[in-house]
TrEMBL record:
Pfam family, one: MAPKK1_Int
Taxonomic source organism: Oikopleura dioica (Tunicate)
SUPFAM superfamilies attached to this UniProt entry: Roadblock/LC7 domain
InterPro entries named among the record's database cross-references: LAMTOR3
Protein name (Swiss-Prot/TrEMBL): Oidioi.mRNA.OKI2018_I69.PAR.g11889.t1.cds
Length: 80
């Protein structure tokens, strides 16, 4: 089972809406997935990296992510 399958199952199981962030740890690496429909941005880092810092830095990139969202929606013809 991959991380996205797990998060979708959890979303439905606890009935709390969609997760915006999914974080998974392994022995050597961690992944931080940020869901901004229709995009999923994935950061891959060592397991010792600061997850909080990755999330903080990703917030500083929100302007760029918003533009990517707009471009993707336009290209895919998706409405909010």
């Amino acid at each position: 089972m991959n991380c996205s399958s797990l998060s979708l199952g959890i979303d439905k199981q606890i009935n709390q809406g969609e997760n915006l962030y999914n974080i998974a740890f392994g022995t050597k690496y961690q992944t931080v997935q940020i869901r901004k429909h229709p995009l999923t941005i994935i950061f891959l880092a060592t397991s010792s990296a600061s997850t909080g810092l990755i999330l903080k830095e990703s917030k500083e990139l929100d302007t760029y992510f918003s533009q990517l969202q707009t471009n993707a929606r336009t290209h895919l013809q998706i409405q909010n």
